[in-house]
């Protein structure tokens, strides 16, 4: 039987709706969610490819790259946690987690005295008023930092509408980019593009080089009575940041340096933070599919994918959105896995 069910796209923090198409319980594709208020029936390539995570799901738990019984892997995780000092155990949370999962991860870390880290694109200490997507379409002066139109095309669509309505668009981005093509001017530095901010401008960014650069953006935006929109690379980074304080790259490296045991929940920290992960005695990944962090992990625990979970996200403009599972599954959720480990401690 062919079924079409609504959910939210997990590919970035814009928060688009997406339809998942299944046939006899097997995911076969996606199509556009016509009535979703954010993307209005449009889905980008990232959204269409988001089901690849489900198609490439891990089937077995692993210890030292060998398939093992799930319960054996859980027992090994609990033994490692019990045999190490809590202050040398660190938990990595992620914007890939739902609000419900983040709360469970934080409760788990806090109750056991573990360290907790959360990396959100180096976006720390975001200040100023947050713009809504409707304000993007109606803005008259837009400052873009990063290739928004290529990486977040459904938000980019709203920027194009603003440009069609007469908005000036200034960007700091690589010249050979979609964002550069629609800009009135491509600036050569962050300082140059920030000079284009005037009263009641709108600043949108999905990339910053450093915490100092973010401070510059915050300060100038507030000073000029403007609004900003930080577009995270992960769907619930904004929601996670409401629960766990984001860390800078430098703070994440310090955390890793002081960890003998690292538990990574639904994240690929190795792809984001440059560090010699071989220095950590035990890395344990909780993930629906393989990534570069699970590849260097001593233990890998498979968890259900976003298609199989109920939960909620907070998108880039701060709107909380609920989603429902669109596929039935016998796989344990992240929350259930944490509860099984906690019961053994």
Could you please describe the fold and organization of this structure?
The protein folds into 2 domains: 61-121 and 237-305 and 329-344, Rossmann fold (3-Layer(aba) Sandwich); 129-230, Dimethylsulfoxide Reductase, domain 2 (3-Layer(aba) Sandwich). Helix 8 links the parallel strand 10 (168-172) and strand 11. Helices cover 31% and strands 23% of the residues. The strands form 4 sheets. The chain has a 7-stranded mixed sheet, sandwiched between helices. It has a 6-stranded parallel sheet with strand order 8-13-12-9-10-11, sandwiched between helices. The longest helix is centred in the N-terminal third of the chain and has 14 residues, at 99-112. Helix 3 packs across helix 14 and helix 4 packs parallel to helix 14. The mean pLDDT is 93. The protein has helices spanning 45-48, 52-55, 70-82, 99-112, 133-137, 148-151, 153-164, 178-182, 190-194, 211-223, 237-241, 249-257, 292-295, 334-344, and strands spanning 2-8, 17-23, 26-32, 61-63, 66-68, 89-93, 115-118, 129-130, 141-145, 168-172, 185-186, 202-205, 227-230, 261-265, 282-287, 299-302, 311-314, 320-323. The protein is α/β, with parallel strands linked by helices. The N and C termini lie far apart (44 Å).
């Amino acid at each position: 039987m062919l079924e079409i069910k609504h959910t939210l796209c997990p590919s970035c923090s814009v928060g688009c709706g997406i339809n998942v198409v299944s046939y006899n319980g097997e995911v076969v594709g996606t199509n556009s969610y016509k009535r979703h208020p954010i993307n209005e029936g449009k889905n980008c390539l990232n959204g269409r490819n988001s089901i690849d995570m489900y198609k490439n799901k891990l089937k077995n738990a692993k210890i030292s790259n060998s398939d093992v019984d799930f319960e054996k892997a859980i027992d090994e995780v609990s033994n490692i946690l019990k045999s190490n000092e809590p202050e040398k155990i660190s938990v990595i949370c992620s914007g890939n987690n739902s609000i419900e999962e983040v709360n469970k991860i934080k409760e788990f870390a806090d109750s056991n005295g573990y360290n907790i880290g959360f990396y959100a694109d180096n976006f720390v200490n975001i200040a100023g008023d947050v713009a809504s997507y409707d304000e993007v379409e109606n803005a008259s002066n837009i400052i873009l930092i990063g290739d928004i139109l290529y990486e977040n095309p459904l938000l980019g669509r709203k920027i194009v509408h603003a440009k069609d309505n007469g908005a000036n668009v200034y960007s700091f981005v690589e010249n050979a980019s979609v964002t550069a093509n629609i800009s009135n001017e491509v600036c050569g530095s962050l300082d140059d593009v920030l000079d284009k901010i005037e009263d009641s401008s709108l600043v949108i960014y999905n990339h910053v080089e450093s915490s100092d650069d973010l401070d510059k953006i915050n300060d100038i935006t507030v000073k000029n009575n403007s609004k900003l929109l930080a577009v995270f690379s992960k769907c619930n980074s904004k929601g996670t940041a409401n629960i766990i304080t984001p860390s800078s790259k430098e703070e994440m490296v310090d955390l890793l340096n002081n960890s003998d045991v690292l538990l990574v929940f639904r994240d690929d920290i190795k792809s984001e933070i440059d560090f010699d992960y071989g220095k950590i005695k035990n890395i344990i990944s909780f993930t629906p599919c393989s990534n570069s962090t699970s590849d260097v992990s001593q233990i890998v625990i498979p968890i259900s994918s976003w298609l199989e979970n109920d939960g909620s996200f907070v998108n880039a403009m701060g709107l909380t959105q609920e989603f429902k599972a669109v596929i039935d599954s016998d796989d344990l959720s992240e929350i259930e896995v944490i509860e099984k480990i906690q019961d053994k401690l």
